[in-house]
Every structure is written in structure tokens, then in C-alpha cells.
Design a protein that fits this description.
The first copy, chain A, is α/β, with parallel strands linked by helices and 334 residues long. Chain A has helices at residues 11-21, 40-43, 60-66, 78-88, 104-110, 128-136, 146-155, 189-192, 206-218, 251-259, 308-318; strands spanning 2-6, 27-33, 38-39, 54-57, 69-72, 92-95, 123-125, 140-142, 168-174, 197-198, 224-230, 237-244, 265-267, 283-290, 293-300. Chains A, B, C, D: Its EC number is 1.2.1.38.
Amino acid sequence: MNVAIIGASGYTGLELIKLLLTHPKFTITYIANSTGDINVQDLHPCLKDVLNIEVSKANANDVAAKADLAFLALPHKTSMSFAKELLALDVKVVDLSADYRLELDTYEEHYCAHEDKDNIPNSVYGLPEYYKEEISSAKLVANPGCYPTASLLALLPFVDYIEEGTQVFIDAKSGISGAGKKLTELAHFANLNENMMAYNPFKHRHMPEIEEKIKLVKNKEFQINFVPQLIPVTRGMLISVYATLKDEVNVEEILEETYKNNEFVRVRKSAVDIKSTAGTNFCDVFVARNKKALFINSSIDNLLRGASSQAVVNANLMCGFEENEGIPKLAYVP
Amino acid sequence: MNVAIIGASGYTGLELIKLLLTHPKFTITYIANSTGDINVQDLHPCLKDVLNIEVSKANANDVAAKADLAFLALPHKTSMSFAKELLALDVKVVDLSADYRLELDTYEEHYCAHEDKDNIPNSVYGLPEYYKEEISSAKLVANPGCYPTASLLALLPFVDYIEEGTQVFIDAKSGISGAGKKLTELAHFANLNENMMAYNPFKHRHMPEIEEKIKLVKNKEFQINFVPQLIPVTRGMLISVYATLKDEVNVEEILEETYKNNEFVRVRKSAVDIKSTAGTNFCDVFVARNKKALFINSSIDNLLRGASSQAVVNANLMCGFEENEGIPKLAYVP
Amino acid sequence: MNVAIIGASGYTGLELIKLLLTHPKFTITYIANSTGDINVQDLHPCLKDVLNIEVSKANANDVAAKADLAFLALPHKTSMSFAKELLALDVKVVDLSADYRLELDTYEEHYCAHEDKDNIPNSVYGLPEYYKEEISSAKLVANPGCYPTASLLALLPFVDYIEEGTQVFIDAKSGISGAGKKLTELAHFANLNENMMAYNPFKHRHMPEIEEKIKLVKNKEFQINFVPQLIPVTRGMLISVYATLKDEVNVEEILEETYKNNEFVRVRKSAVDIKSTAGTNFCDVFVARNKKALFINSSIDNLLRGASSQAVVNANLMCGFEENEGIPKLAYVP
Amino acid sequence: MNVAIIGASGYTGLELIKLLLTHPKFTITYIANSTGDINVQDLHPCLKDVLNIEVSKANANDVAAKADLAFLALPHKTSMSFAKELLALDVKVVDLSADYRLELDTYEEHYCAHEDKDNIPNSVYGLPEYYKEEISSAKLVANPGCYPTASLLALLPFVDYIEEGTQVFIDAKSGISGAGKKLTELAHFANLNENMMAYNPFKHRHMPEIEEKIKLVKNKEFQINFVPQLIPVTRGMLISVYATLKDEVNVEEILEETYKNNEFVRVRKSAVDIKSTAGTNFCDVFVARNKKALFINSSIDNLLRGASSQAVVNANLMCGFEENEGIPKLAYVP
């Protein structure tokens, strides 16, 4: 099946290219960014002698002429206008931006005015462990944010056991690639190496995404208190969820039970680390309890399970392929 | 004033040497480790052409003959037998181990049988912001653990405002130097770089130390749920404390008010980082609130404020010097 | 074709497992280490839910019963005795140790007494760019060392142009994975991060390997002066070769010409970096000239092109497959 | 003695502030950058509660009114016009830029037109081991570049023993702080961590500086072939010098003899590392020989010995103080 990648310049664009190059069912027929007129090897020198293709200036009609499905690795706002055009041209879309992840009100409160309201109700939240069926019949999938992916996979199994009215805290740590290629003071090696810091505590836009999805999946409302942090690591994400249980339940069993049929969630017997999931689509999860205090610990590759490989899983499901077709499981270890 | 360093081989021993070498009031007259018979330059090659002194095999009578105060940078258990001898010989002691930090019962539950019970009641917990007066007249100071130092300085100002019966969570991150020089798999560069992981969640021995001191200082009992983590950083520590407030109080003001007269706690207006305190005795603290959800964020150098420079502050107070004599304030930045 | 991996515990063993798991022609039928009696997932936790196979205690007859070709990722000396047995049982061998890389005299001078002298003349040095034909008909391939691979691919094209009698210098930098999993002071994160240092200057055992192969391939003798260094990087290797040219020749052209038909050597227009080859079998090479002074710069993944993926290329050739079957080209970027 | 720091925003400006704050003889009376109107704590948040002083917009008359000596941590070209004014106002100058390091012709070939030609003959090259006497009576000292400092201290002792007409190669590695605070792709953590690369091989402007000084000090001409490289390290520099000796001389003795009376050069018995000099003014040097092949290995802190602490040593000498007054010797270890 022919696919297009729109937004090839960034990290998630590169990861999409790499994943699709070795995918047994998808063929890349179109790659675009905002300017075009460059060979993909000049955009990503690591692709020299690997892929020789011209990057186009993104155009919806060209996509429709060449591909059945498009991955949009675009900034929010840019994404919605392009998705709208593609959907009208009957191209399936996996959108890696935030544009179709939220209900309209939540979106407009935290991002900007929405310009493709019609397609919001048709979009499916692309967290395969919870929306597999809906994704399979969707034309538009909103790929979850990296923090929400790791946080929801950790938290959702326990939502029914958490004492209502108590606070849920998420202490999240991300590698710097999560902030993209942008040159910022924080991303300067001299500032980040041998360092670590929180940013936007209680104010990150992934916080409402987590709250909304918990309500949607479990019909429970919790105040989610989310503190993202940068660690001196390029790729990877580690999440600590802290909550208060109603009872001293068997949390290991709950976790095992929830994910026993899910190929890409691995329940671990000890605290998880970043490297075991880096390079893969796995989400590793571990849980511990201190009387009624709950600690759930998850790890993903922020660029893969938090973006590009989860997008390809979604595309697999949308196209009727096996969920695991071409999806990486071999970690960047050592 | 003449001082001895017992336990010169480890990281905290080296930091003590460096601090005392440039201290205006203290003179190092005796350095020992468990074997002796080595020049300090061979133990720590960075001291070549800086300090030329033989390291002795630790002996209490020799210490008493040469020094008025001794810093013990020894493993727990070893420390108490040596401290006992020194105190009997009228040498003041700053003990960097855990041996005199806890009440007898707590100690024996989490460490081992205590062999110097008589001196426990005379020991003072060396957190200067809360025990300055007691330290000033003490003969034996138990230097706090690194995690408790950063956690207590963050948490104590808010203890009276936290809803009773709610859970307090501490998500703590430490550089690998906190685990000492020991060669372990976790400390191998190939395992730690580009990685991060929790260890001993809810089971670390600093957890009861934090609980006990909160009760001691504030007469409040809270279940402290402590999750320590290793980050790919050599020195530094970053703490997230999460708790639930009774009311939506002005947390910034509470923090400012608590530490307005403390030279070595800096209240910050935004999330703290590790590098701004690395190389110094500062504890940087920041606080944020989301309705009744509380986030307190602190940073220290685990080897200095978490061990050696706090020990020298304690020694300053015990000897009647200014708290800040010879105490570093200039960070390892960039 | 069925293959065995002997020596599964180390980094190169893990890389072999990962490569062969996704290889279209080879099937892993036997994995062994020195103790056996462990599941591969317990040896390498990143393989959980990926590969479920018991690791055996290495036994030559078992290998012969189950596999046509064996990869030996064993320490030198251990390797030769095992290879000898396998060859007698008609199993093809790719040996990743040093045991068959050198002529007998050179080997015994720098390593130890050789216990399988008979097979030395039949072994082929597995540098495919220079020995493709010999490898294709070999039963025993000696996989080159990591430093020699990167150094020879850089240096060989220029040997005929270097002024005879002048010194050739190689300033080589390796990630710590090159030293294996062993717990050493140098490999401790606190010692290696924010650090870098040479080790064994002019005394590393890869120095005679480079000298010998230059003589063998080009029939020229040069004094190779080799200085290996450790960098705060897990995987990757960067080489600077410095030499003096006879004439001010067009070095870019020489390099292009040499490798124009080699899929896994990429000639670069600017200085090479480590990350563009990490995760791949590529060797990136760049050359610059300052009058008669020559600088050749090469980069490889020390665990792949410097060990495991080069071993699989050799196995491909030995079995009549395409050189590039199952060989990775997609770098660990970002 | 009152001193001014002009150019307080960069890394070397910050290091000057830190050095001078604890200096027993110098008092900072004026700090400036190009904009002024900011407190130094807002420029460098690590100075909060350490130094409370307004940063001025740089003005020569203000400097002259408040200080006897000025440190210029300015970009080249900006520096010369400011130095000219200060010298006319009888303020002593230590210039950390390149503006007075080179002879006029060399300077104009590699940098730009010189606008203060008159002061060039009066400037002294501030490498104290070789120009101590001249520095002591100078009004204008040109502080050497970081690469030339480490390269010259390594190479100068051996110049007389190197075979004439042979090539000298310098393989130099610098932490990223050497490139300043500028936000560049290379300095982005995701590009530099787990990476390393050469830049401007044979074309860096420190190459003619090294060549010129060798000729000046030793009256010998050598083609210096200089390859700078970036390593994933914040501060520190490691140099490999490779050359060909006339005879198989005792290189250890030559090195020992050269520096036996120099407090800030430490001759090491094994290969040097970066961390042992980080945070100090030391240059560590080691030498090895393979027949006539020579390897000299040096390490400095690029921001201190390569810039700010060497500048303070020069200021000490210019003002008649002891060379080591206020100069740091305690490394950032671990």
C-alpha cells in the first residue's frame, strides 16, 4: 500500500521514514516538507546511500495522486488544514499533531481556534490498547501525545481502584528529542548534560489530554497533576504515576490481567528503565504499592511508541494488516 | 583548628579534603582510610601537586593526638565504633554515616544492631536550618542523608498545611556518585548513559529518616512514599515532593517566609535545576500549586549539601565559627 | 540456514541475536554461553517478549547437530579450542575473537601460545572490501578487530601514496562498549562522563594487526603508531589517520575510486561523525590534505561493523547469499 | 586592586566573575556587557544570592574611573577598539580575544583588518611558562587561545628534537563550551550526546597561532596540521600531538626537565584525562615514544587554563602578585 509522509524534516518524520522503509506492506511514494526542493539525504545525512528520493513541497492533490494513506508529522494548526484537504480527497490520515486528539472545547482552550470542526467527531484516539476496533474502521486517527501515551497506559488499569477525590500526580521525564530539533537554551549540550529540570509544572498541554481520556475511557474524573521534566537523554521517556488506592488491592495482578493480550505492553517485575524500550514500540510497565499508596512506572521511546511507531501501528490497523507488521521490538541496547 | 578526615578514599572523603584545604579556620592534620600506607595523591590523582600527605590506617588515639574534631566518612556500622572511641577521647565528631541519624528502634529496624546506644541521645541531627542551636553546642552531629536533606528542606515548610491522612509522595532523582565508587552494573556507563530508572521504590532506608524527622520537627505523622531514581548525571539531586493541601494557601509566601533568613536555601521563581547547585552548599527550592495539589521542587549537590559541605557547616557551628566559613557558593556552571 | 551463537552473554552476542532474529535467511537454532541453564530473556532483559529460548552450555557436538554455521563471540584463547572442534565437525565458523586474525608469530608475540595452528592457514581475514572472494569460499573467517576495521578501511586506499619511511599515526576513539561489560573503574559513569582519556598508547594489540594487514594487502611496511582512547559514548568509533604523502595527489578522487562499488563504505564530503553510522554496518570515510599532510577520518559502530554485523556479512558471503542480506543501514539517529 | 570585566555574558565572563570573587587581591568594581541594564544574577542565575551587581553597558571612561585593570572577554574585532581606548586611558588590559595574539600579517590573513596596529608591538603573548618576565612588565597581554595553550605546552619542549621537514599533527578534542553559548545544530544535545566529530580540519584559526608561536619561541618552522574535534563534554580539552623525532631521546626526561619549576604544569606518568584538570588552571602533560614516533598528550580546562584562569594568572603577574594568587587547583572530581 502506498503511503505519504508529510513533515519529513523533524525527528518523527525521520523515524517514519526509517520505519516505513523496512515495512513489509507499506511503500513510501511521497515525502514532503514545507519547502520541498531537497533530496531526503540532504535533509537527513544518515540516509545517504539508503534512500534517494526528492522531498516535495507539501500538496494535497499530489498526495492523493500517489498514496492511499498519509502520515502528518506537522505542527498543530498546520496539520488540521492539511488533514481536511486529504480527507476530502479520500486519503486516510494518521495525524501525529494534537489537532484531533481533544474534544473541541478542550482543544480550543489549550491550543487555538479549530478550523476543521467537522472532522473532529470522526477522529479516533490512536491508543491501540484501548481503541483497537475504532481505529480499524477509522479514516482519521489522532495519534496520542508522547506523555499521554505513557501516562495513560500506566494509569488506566488502576482508575477504578483509585480513591475518588484524591489527587493523581504524574512525574514525567522526557529525553530532549521530545522538544524537537528547535535550537533552544535548554537543548544546548552545556545546559542539559549533567543537568535535569522540570518545565511548565501543572501547565503542560498534555495534562488536559490525560484528564479527558481518563474520563472518556473510564468515565471517572480525577484531577491530574502533571509535571514534565527534561533529562540529559536524547530519546526515551520515564513516567511515575502516584495515586491513592481505595483498598490494598493486588496491583500486580490488575496490571497483568489488563495487558495479558497486548503484544506491545510488557509488564515488568521490577522498576522499568528507558533503554529497554528505546528503539521499540514497547511500553514497559511496573507497579508497586505501599499500603494504599500507588506507584506506577512506565517507559516508552518518545519518538516511536510516543509518536512514529504508534502511528504505523495505527496505520496497520486502519489498513487491515496485523498490528505488529514492521513494528520494531529490538531495543537500542547497549 | 585541627581536624581529621576518617574515610578518605570515597567521594565524600575527597570532597571533605577539597573543602578543608581552602577553609580559613580548619587545618587538616590527619587523614585516614582502612588500610593506610598510601599518599593521598595516589588515592586521588587529581590532588597531585596540590596536597602531599600520607594517609594513615585509622586509629582513634592518633586522631585525638592530632585533631580537635573528626569527620567520619565511613560506612554505617564501622562509623559507630569509631565515633564511640573518639567521643571518649573528647574529640568532636561529625558523622556522615547513618549511625546516629535515627532513633534507636528505627535504626535497628532498617540498618543493624546499634553498638553505641549511649551516644544516640547526645547526637544532633545536622540540618542547620532546623537545628542550628542544638548543633552549636553538640559534640556529636549526625549529618543527614542526601535524600533526606533535599526532601526535608522542601517538605518541612508545608507540613502544617498538608491535609492529614493524605499520602505524601517523593519522586527523587540522584546522580550516580550518590551510590559511591562501587563498581556495579547500574553504574557502568553503557547502562546508565541515555538511561534512567527507579530503584527500591518505597523501600529505601532514607524513607524512615524523612518520616521520623517530620514527626520530630513538626509533630505530624505522614506516610511518606519515597521513590529514588538514578539519572545519567555524576553529581546532583533533584526532588519532586507531591502532597495535598488542606486549603488553597499562598505557597510561595510560605516558602519565602520560612527561609528568608537562611543563607543556604534559595527560593526560586521557576523550577529548579541541578547545575545551579552543583559545586555548592545551596539548596534551591521552588513551589507550585494546582488547586489543592502541591509540588515542591528542590535541588542540591548530593556530595556537598547532601554530605561534605553540610558536614563542614555543622563543624563550623560546633566550633563557634560563622556558618558560611569556607562553604562554597559558586556552581559548576557551565 | 541454521546458525548458532556461541558466547551470548556479551554485547556482541546480543547484537548477533538481534541481527539474526530479523535476518531473512538465517535461523538461530542454538545459543550458548559458558554456563548455560538460563533463558535468553534473563540474560538480556530487553529481549523479554521478543525471543524465548534457553541458553545452553556451549558444546560442539550440539552445535554440529543443530547448525551449519557458528558465530563465536568468545574471548581469545577460548575461541580457538572451540573453533577447532567445530571445524572438525564440518561446521563453518565466523570467529569474532583475535585467534585467527594474525600470522602465528605475530599472534604468539601479542596474545598467547596458539593451540590450533593447523587452521591458521585456512582462515580468511574477514574484511569484505578487500577479501570478498576468499571469504566466499572460506570455512573459517577471522572477523577483524573494531579498531583495525575502521583504521584499515581508512588507510588502505592511500598506502601506495604515502612517503616510505615516514610515520603513520592513528588517533582512535572508542565508545566504552568496546571494552565489554566488565566492571572497571574506567567504565564507571562518574569516571567516564564529562571525561576522555587515552589508554595503552603505542601498546594496544590492534596495532600489530593493522601493520600486518597493510603489509599483506599492499606489500608495504609502515610503522603504525596507534593511540586508542575512550570517549563518553556507549557505541561508536571515530578514527583519525595521519600520514605524509609523497606528492600532493587528489585524495578525494583516490577515496571515491577505491570504494565506488562498495555498498557499506560511504565516502563523505565533510568530517564524519559517530551517530551517522551507529546502528549500521556502514563505514563512513572522509579525507583531507594540507600540502603533503594527510588526514583520513573514519567512523563505524564498534559493535556492528566492528564486530557483529561484519560477522553476518561474512556469513552471508560464506553461504552464498547477497552481502547485504539482513544487514542494517538505518542509523540510531537522533 | 580594582578590576573590570568587559563581556560578562559568556562562559569566560562568568568564569572570570567566579575567579575574581574569591581572589584575595582583586576586587570587581565594574562588570559590563554590550547592552547593560541587567543584574548579574539575571544574566547568570547560578549567582543568585552570591553577587548582586548591576551590569553596565561597556564604556571605557567608566572603566578607567573605577578600575586599574580590565579583562576583555569580547569577540575578536570588538575587543581591539575597546582595548585601544582603555590603553589610552592607562588601564591595563588582559585581552581574551584573538586581537593581539598574532603578528599583523598573520592576523589580517586569518581574521580581519586590524584597527589598533600601534598596540600590537606592545602586546605580550600570555603563556606564563614561556613569557613570564615579559608579562610582568606588560600593559597589554594577549591571552592565548585554548587550543594553542594546550598544544604549545605539549609541543614546545620537544621542538628542538623533532626531525626538520617532517609533519607535526595535532588531534585536538574540545568540550562544547569552547564554542560558546551560541545555539547551533552541533551544540544541540540530541546531536552531540553519544556523538563526536571533527570540524574545520586543517582550517582552524588556531593553527597559524600555534605555528607562529613555535617559530617565535624556538626559531623553528614546522608545518602544523591541526584537526579540532567536538566531544560530548561540556568543559575540558584533550590534545594528541604526533611528531617524528631525530633520535630516540629520553622524552620523559625532557618533559620533566622543562617544567620542573612550573607550578601549573603537571607531568604525568600515564595518559592524561580531562576531569583531573577540569575546574583548575593545571595543564597535565604526558609523553610516550615508539622508536622515533612521538606522542604528547595534554589536558586543560578550556574555560580556565584555556581562557579565564590563565587571564587571572597574567593579571597577577602584571600587578606584581604571586602567579598562583586565587588560582584554582581543585578539580571538579568526581
